[in-house]
Input
Amino acid sequence: MTFQFVSGESGRALGQTDIRISPVAMGCWPIAGMTSLDVNDADSRRTLRAAFESGVNFFDTAYCYGAAGESERLIGSELADCRDELVIATKGGLHWDDNVERRFDASPASLRRECEESLRRLNTDRVELLYLHAPDPQVAVAESAGELKRLLDEGKARSIGASNFNVDQLDLFRAECPLAAVQPPFNMLQREADVDVLPWCERNGASAVIYWPLMKGLLAGKLPRDHQFQSGDGRAKYPMFQGEEWHKNQDFLDDLRSIAQRAGRSVAQLVVNWTIHQPQITAALCGAKRPYQIEEAAGAMGWSLSATELAAIDEALARRGAVVTKGAV
Output
C-alpha cells in the first residue's frame, strides 16, 4: 500500500526539515499497556495499521513505552512493509528500573545506548525524529544535546526534538543542537504553552508537536457524568477528572456536543481539528489502543471549522472559565 495524505492535507513540514508529517499523529504510549487497560497485541497491531490506512504517517513512541520496549517492537514488526512511508519519532533519556520505577538518565552513554536499542526494536537504521524525553536534573542540557547532535550527524536520526522542556532549557539545547520539534502538553483546557513554548517555536523555526489534545480521553466526550474509573486507571488521579472540575468539564462538553452535532462531526474530531489549526501547532499526538479511536481522530484532518463554529467554541471556553491543572502534567 502506498501512503497518501487525506484529502485537503499535503503534509506539514517538520521544523525546517524536508520531512512531511500528517497533522494527526498516533501516540503509541497506550499500546505499551502500562497504564492503559485491556491492551493486547492483536488490537494494537490493528490500530497501527488503521492509523496508516486512515492517512496518518506520523507515529510517536519512546524507549520507555513499555517495560521491555513493547510499543517500539510493535511498530517495528507491524509496519515494516511501509517503513519508508512513515515518520517515526522516538525518545530517549527515560527508562524503567528493575522495580518498574521511572528513572531519568540523559547521559551521553545512555542516550546512545537507548537510541541504538530503539533502532533494533523498530527494525530500522534511523528514526525521522529523536527526542530527549525530558531534562535530566543530574546531566547538563548541553551535554545531552551534544550527544543527540552526534547521533544526528551519524544519520541515526534525521532530526532532533525536545520534550517537556521550558524555554530556558530549550535555549541551552538549541545552542548545541538544532531543534526540529518541541513537545509540550496542550489542549483546549490546558494552554500554558501559549505563554512561552509556542512563541519560542515560532521564533526558532521549530514545530510544536503537542500531546494530550483530548486530555487523556476527557475531551473525546465519551465519559458520562457518573463514570466510575476502574482500578488501575491512572486518569482518576488528575484534577480534571475530580470534583467540581469534573462537573465543569461535563458542562463544557455538553456545549461541544451541540457544536459538533451542528458541524456533523464527533466531539473528538471537533476538538482535534480546533487543536491542529491553532497557530504554531504542527501536529497533535492522539493516543489509541483500538482502531476506531485513531480512525476517529484521523477524521479531524482535511477540513476546517467555520468562523461561526470557532466563535461558539470561544463562548463555551469562556463559560468554562479558569481550569485547575495542578498535578495534571
